[in-house]
Amino acid sequence: MKLWSLIGNSQKLDGGAMFGNAPRAMWSKWSPPDEHNRIELACRALLASPLNGKTVLFETGIGAFFEPRLRERYGVVEDRHVLLDSLAAAGFAPGDIDVVVLSHLHFDHAGGLLAPWAEGEPPRLLFSNASFVVGREHWQRATGPHPRDRASFIPELPGLLESSGRLELVDGAHSQALGDSVRFHYSHGHTPGLMLAEIAGPERVGNQSHGGVVFCADLIPGRPWVHVPITMGYDRNAELLIDEKKAFLADKLARKVHLFFTHDPGCALAQVTQDEKGRFGTTHEVAELHARALLA
After folding, report:
1. How far apart are CA 185 and CA 194, in angstroms?
2. Range of the domain at 15
3. How far is CA 1 from CA 45, 47, 97, 99, in A?
């Protein structure tokens, strides 16, 4: 099995919102802001093939579905669908994707499912041969969102996914599409039922795999958020998220599972460290993956 990190459309969002109650004097050292107080963010997807005999895409980024006015409002930099370019550069077309795994359906993680915006055209799904794997609890949130995060969802997307006939809602640790090759962890601090996909590693100790890769989604958007107290203003329950993140990182450190970051503009993959004071960090940071073997 080989892994690719695929860059999608990038964003610029308010640094204060991305770092919650951390002071600007601190977060500006990690992510220097522009004149509008916005920081650079990636929307990175992970491609794995063959995984359980399939070509699997973990998330699709924000894509290019926004009309120009909203693209400007939400800080989307490019007007083309960058993920499609990245797929092509890796030697794949949208029709080659067998499974798309979605941690959640906020537009910066699922918007890339849709074709680029065109005047007068309704939203249209891409990846015509893929099944779409979504956590059932989060699906309930997406189809009946709370006012706090209603604007983070694409209203037409649940209907498009359901009418495709290729939607799989997942309740537990595994999906029908991917079997034991992918294990799902769940988090509720950012959004209910956030689904964190772990590609099983090659080593097994008892009934647990070691040495795999986990897609951290918005539990840990990038390296600065590995520090447990750092959360986002977009998180629905910062204290819960901190507790979840602490347990998540301790587990990944113990099992030597690599972290894959979607929003970190400079790092796709890293390993977890912990110092003598118990503070988590990262090491062996990798900017890009190009047909990289899981053990490489």
Report:
1. 8
2. 2-293
3. 16, 10, 15, 15
Write the pLDDT tens digit of every residue in 85-133: 999 999 999 999 999 999 999 999 999 999 999 999 999 999 999 999 9
**Closest C-alpha among 263, 135, 109 to residue 187:** 135
Q: Specify the amino acid at residue 296.
A: A
Whose tokens are 């977890």? That residue is: 272
pLDDT band, very low/low/confident/very high, at 295 (cuts 50, 70, 90): low
Q: Report the CATH number at residue 40.
A: 3.60.15.10
Phi, psi of 107 (to 5 degrees): -65, -25
**Total domain count, the chain:** 1
- Could you give the C-alpha distances from 118 to 67, 99, 114, 123, 279, in angstroms and in order? 8, 26, 11, 9, 47
Three-state secondary structure along the chain? CEEEEEECCCEEEEHHHHCCCCCHHHHHHHCCCCCCCEEEECCEEEEEEEECCEEEEECCCCCCCCCHHHHHHCCECCCCCHHHHHHHHCCCCHHHCCEEEECCCEHHHHHHHECCCCCCCCCCECCCCCEEEEEHHHHHHHHCCCCCCHHHECCCHHHHHHHHCCEEEECCCCECCCECCEEEEEECCCCCCEEEEEECCCEEECCEEECCEEECCCCCCCHHHHCCCCCCCCCCCHHHHHHHHHHHHHHHHHCCCEEECCCCCCCCEEEEEECCCCCEEEEEEECCCCCEECCC
**CA geometry: angle at 201 spanning 208 and 99, to 5°?**
110
Give the pair of three-digit tokens for residue 260. 């894959």
